[in-house]
From TrEMBL:
Keywords: Amino-acid transport, Cell inner membrane, Cell membrane, Membrane, Symport, Transmembrane, Transmembrane helix, Transport. One of its GO terms (cellular component) is plasma membrane. InterPro entries: Amino_acid_transport_2, Hydroxy_aa_transpt. This is HAAAP family serine/threonine permease. The chain crosses the membrane at residues 24-42, 75-95, 115-132, 139-159, 179-202, 223-243, 269-287, 316-333, 339-358, 379-397. It is found in: Cell inner membrane. It catalyses: L-serine(in) + H(+)(in) = L-serine(out) + H(+)(out).
């Protein structure tokens, strides 16, 4: 439970109050109501898909290749990489903005030019990774728990300052529906823990054998409930303690809600604690996603070389992958694109396709999954996936 919880709850949580709260209080209530089925049913479908393999212990790419062919297996590997890379870029932008804001508002200093600040931060992160990936992963795993406790503490601290400002914003039926529709991708991103599902299911299968499905389902259900309770309490507490203008200002400044709270409240502890927690959360998420993205890129380059009959120099491929990732993150952090815009336009569509659409397609096409056909939850997952993808398309067109 805590492993899945830690995968989902990270830097993405810090941007959800801004996106979800901008539309007002009442669309947020509906989003809170659908958060659990959105999270639990979609990830349960992915668990079932991985367990449908005739070869126990197969990971997601192996299961896709078994059911849909080798080409589809390579495509899923590519899609997973393309899911992780934009998130990595988001965290590069987010960390640069958080440090820049901290230097201006809390330290009272003038930050260096953005191009140098972002390069320094990224090279610093890479230096930490060079010290030892195993230790980095372990330390970042430990940071999950204090991070969650601090989130809850900040949510509780804000309770006395709750006001009705956001509740005064009552949208019409058309605006209400549009707000709800366009907020779904951010919800999908914030509760997504699909990168951990493959390893989680394989571990349950290894330990419990035929009982793995029931065990995985129980763990996923409880983990999703815990995620929704913690995150939505934090989101509601932030939204109820701020005015709509504050949320719009946070979006315009392209910073997380914690950085904005630290700048707004006249409390020495809050002003320092909130941006520091934001830095830790973004750094934690950056390390995890960097390791996954680099692995994916190394795999793609190696597959391409082998397909062309060329030898694979692992050291050279690793060096190229690391340089490519650093260059991409540095460019994004320097250009400072909208973080919420990147979530909506880059991360959402691929996550929705892999998490919502593919398992439901498999229910119809894969004999081993036909026993799940006709369940009401399938309709919910397919509908939310279609809504998420259509909302992203609409945002891009607009």
């Amino acid at each position: 439970m805590l492993g899945l919880f830690g995968t989902a709850i990270g830097a993405g949580t810090l941007f959800l109050p801004i996106n979800a709260g901008l539309g007002g209080f009442w669309p947020l209530v509906v989003l809170a109501a659908i958060a659990f089925p959105l999270t639990y049913l979609a990830h349960r479908g992915l668990c079932r898909f991985i367990l449908s393999s005739s070869r126990p212990g197969s990971d997601i790419t192996e299961v896709v290749a078994e059911h849909f062919g080798a080409t589809a297996g390579k495509l899923i590997t590519l899609l997973y990489f393309l899911t992780i890379l934009p998130i990595l870029l988001i965290y590069g932008v987010g960390l640069t903005n958080t440090v820049q804001s901290f230097m201006v508002h809390q330290l009272g200093t003038t930050p260096p030019p953005r191009v140098l600040l972002s390069l320094g931060l990224i090279l610093g992160l890479m230096a930490v990774i060079k010290l030892g990936e195993t230790m980095v992963v372990r330390v970042m795993g430990w940071l999950v728990y204090p991070f969650v406790l601090v989130l809850m503490a900040i949510g509780l601290y804000l309770v006395p300052g709750w006001n009705g400002a956001v509740m005064n914003q009552v949208p019409g039926a058309g605006q209400f529906s549009l707000t709800l529709w366009l907020s779904i991708p951010a919800m999908v991103f914030s509760f997504n823990h699909s990168p951990a599902i493959s390893r989680f299911v394989v571990a349950q299968q290894k330990e419990y054998g035929a009982a793995a499905e029931a065990k995985a389902d129980r763990i996923e259900r409880r983990s999703a409930a815990m995620m929704v309770l913690v995150v939505m309490f934090f989101v509601f507490s932030c939204v109820l303690s701020l005015a709509p203008a504050d949320l719009a200002a946070a979006k315009a400044q392209n910073i997380s809600i914690l950085s904005y709270l630290g700048n707004k409240f006249d409390n020495p502890l809050m002003s320092v604690l909130t941006p520091v927690v934001a830095m830790i959360a973004i750094t934690k998420s950056f390390f995890g996603h960097y390791l996954g993205a680099r692995e994916g890129l190394v795999g793609l380059v190696s597959q391409q070389l082998r397909g062309q009959g060329k030898p694979v120099n692992e050291k050279a491929v690793n060096r190229f992958s690391a340089l490519a990732m650093v260059g991409a993150v540095w460019l994004a952090a320097t250009l400072n694109p909208s973080i919420l815009g990147m979530i909506e336009s880059l991360c959402g569509p691929i996550i929705a396709a892999l998490l919502f659409i593919m398992p439901m397609y498999a229910v119809r096409k894969v004999p081993a999954m036909r026993r799940y056909a006709g369940q009401p939850g399938n309709v919910v997952v397919l509908f939310i996936g279609a809504v998420a993808m259509s909302a992203i398309i609409w945002s891009l067109i607009s």
